[in-house]
Amino acid sequence: MKINVKKLNENAKLPTYGSKDAAGADLYACTAEEIEIAPHATAMIPTGIALELPVGYAGFIYARSGLASKKGLAPANKVGVVDCDYRGEVKVALHNHTEIPQTIAAGERVAQLVVAPYITADFEEVDELSSTERGAGGFGSTGTK
User: Which of 45, 60, 53 is CA-nearest to residue 109?
Assistant: First the structure.
């Protein structure tokens, strides 16, 4: 699948896959200098790119496992969503989950982008829902007994 990418900054890097069969493409920080993220704070990290995703597809922004495990940095919203009709700059809201300041260097890989299809639902109000064995059992209701 071809995805059109527009560089909004001459120093921007296009997303790249770390291996032939990787699901996520690395997104890179596009900044002139390093960005410090204070403990328990969130910083918006620019990527310097905009995407043209096909209709019916979205870009899902996930944490990079290395950045999360080594620096305690992960997307603040857990999973970011880039809609197919969005044409602005892709940014990553990185949250520092540690007790010490963390830095992001210019050009550092900050997240991974997974392009996936989605379904747009037609929500319809009804008076009753069909019954199931689970019913209204919520959080923790399906654990072992």
Answer: 45
Which H or E run contains 65? helix 65-71
Q: Which residues contact 19 (CB under 8 A, 6 or more apart)?
A: none
| pLDDT tens-place string over residues 30-57 | 999 999 999 999 999 999 999 999 999 9
Size (the chain), residues: 145
pLDDT tens for 121-134 read: 999 999 999 999 88
pTM tops 0.85 = yes
DSSP string for residues in 77-125? TSSEEE-TT--S--EEEEEE-SSS-EEE-TT-EEEEEEEEE--------
Give the Å distances, CA to CA, from 55 to 82, 101, 119: 12, 40, 11
Tokens 């979205």 sit on residue: 58
Contact 90, 49 (CB under 8 A): yes
